[in-house]
């Protein structure tokens, strides 16, 4: 405790001009024997009743100044001192009062001998209370006795362990624990403790310590501290058994002919046998504690640890050689604690028949999967959209519900997010008998759009095909017309489109008769149609006509958990088209992909995977196989790739601006690399040329892009 907690701050205060009469009145009023003399906030000294006695005996009058009574050589202490430091100073100086000063030597108060005693007694009481609480909550049992070995106190643990009650106090410990008697007598008579002695009681095994109790240098009794080690001995026995089992397990693993490795729940290697070390050409100390992905990237350990299912007989390639992998999760109390992996790689010619049988079964499985897909295509029309993202899964459900109606659907989202895939799924799930006809409104010249949509008759205009040509609406009769990039449709054509949607009939260019059509419209755009309406670039009535059911597809950067699935999907598709058998991408590539901005979204990802696929000559695509231009973009974008969906308020606006700046920089770099060729730049970015033009207009990039020399 500190001095300031027990200092009398309501002290008597005098000035240099105070008289002896004033001082006596202050003493009587404050009921004190000491006053501090302070002038202009400076401490000058003290006046005590004894110093006044001396001045009065010397003949001073009551109206005389107290100057001669001031004691300037004053004992002072600091308010932040401990009580024991203050006690030592006051005892050494032999004073009953001390002036307490602040850090700046201003008077804080006066500490008297009674204040000091009160503070020390309070601290002793607090210490006793803490000691009592400590003993009460101590897990060890504590029993104290006096010199006659009568029990004087015990704590809560002793009460619970030995079923003590209030009547236990005063009983001799000889009647309860006779085997404690000799050790307690030894501690009392010699004053020396006995530490950590093993004692067996009827139901417990204890470690006992016998400690003498001293009061004012006199031994008044002793205490015994008992630790129950019954459960610890049981644990020690289990640990010994565990050590034996571990030795047996080590021996079994070492004698195994195949490669065996064991990991914890995070995939970090805890054990590995010689077969595994020989397979990868590493030492034992090099693999223990390392993640299995670093040592054996070919092993798809995530399946076992995430899905918590055993996988047997999986064929993989390690160092270009086929191997058979078996992996199984390890559980303890229903909690996943690790996994064990067994790799068969020696003398695989013995397994030739098995591998041929597996290949045959895989071919049959592929065939039946294709047949099943054909049979159930209408019920599950969105399996071609690869995702585990909850938003995409919910979007699939909403798209299926939308497919059951005949209402117009508006798909929005950035370029490359998969709007066309959703349009195909909606058409397939709709059950409409007609075909799905796709029209990219941004890819067809404006002067040909009308003839493409509505068709023309023979001789309608110069260059018209003989016999005429049906339009997209006629081709989509009883089916679905997918209008991609509808935001780029010119205004005059928007009016005609609105009329077709309302009247459900078209008229070919140059014809005088109308044709009835039954067409379901699915529109898509990467633009903000409502903003175009406000700018007068899109008809408001058409907006409400196409925006009946609105489905917004999130960008790839907001569904990064889908990236590993998409990578495997694209690689499998490319393996089927080529003679390669690449197994996947390394974790480093996945981490790089998941931190990238992906301005071209899924289409951009497929573009990068396809280019890396052709330059990969190992089982897994690694960072070194990725295109240099992508690595350059990724280096600039990696630190900025944060999903805007996780941000709100002004922070979200700031992040959006940062993403726009990054998008602009990537486009400029692509144009620079392709020497201003917009078609090649769009291919490099994985986006359509119309999207590139739109982004160039958005960011004020001139169409006549020139490379500065």
Give a description of the structure.
The protein has 709 residues and is of the alpha/beta class. The protein has 5 domains: 3-116, CBS-domain (Roll); 138-228, 2-Layer Sandwich (Beta-Lactamase), CATH 3.30.450; 245-345, PAS domain (Beta-Lactamase); 390-552, 3-Layer(aba) Sandwich (Rossmann fold), CATH 3.40.50; 558-699, Helicase, Ruva Protein, domain 3 (Orthogonal Bundle). The protein has 26 helices and 27 strands. A 5-stranded antiparallel β-sheet has the order 8-7-11-10-9. It has a 5-stranded antiparallel β-sheet with strand order 13-12-16-15-14, with helices on both faces. The model is unreliable at 639-652 (pLDDT under 50).
Question: What are the key terms here?
Answer:
alpha/beta, Beta-Lactamase, five-stranded antiparallel sheet, 26 helices, 20% strand
> Which fold name is given in CATH as the topology of the largest domain?
Rossmann fold
What composes the largest sheet?
5 strands, antiparallel
Please tell me the overall pLDDT.
Answer: 82
Total domain units: 5
Report the strand count: 27
Fourth CATH level, the homologous superfamily of the largest domain: P-loop containing nucleotide triphosphate hydrolases
Helical proportion?
40-55%
Shape: elongated
Q: How many separate helices?
A: 26
Class from secondary-structure proportions: alpha/beta
Distance between the termini: 78 Å
State the name of the first-level CATH class of the largest domain.
Alpha Beta
CATH architect. name of the largest domain: 3-Layer(aba) Sandwich
Radius of gyration, in angstroms, nearest whole number: 45 Å
Strand content: 15-25%
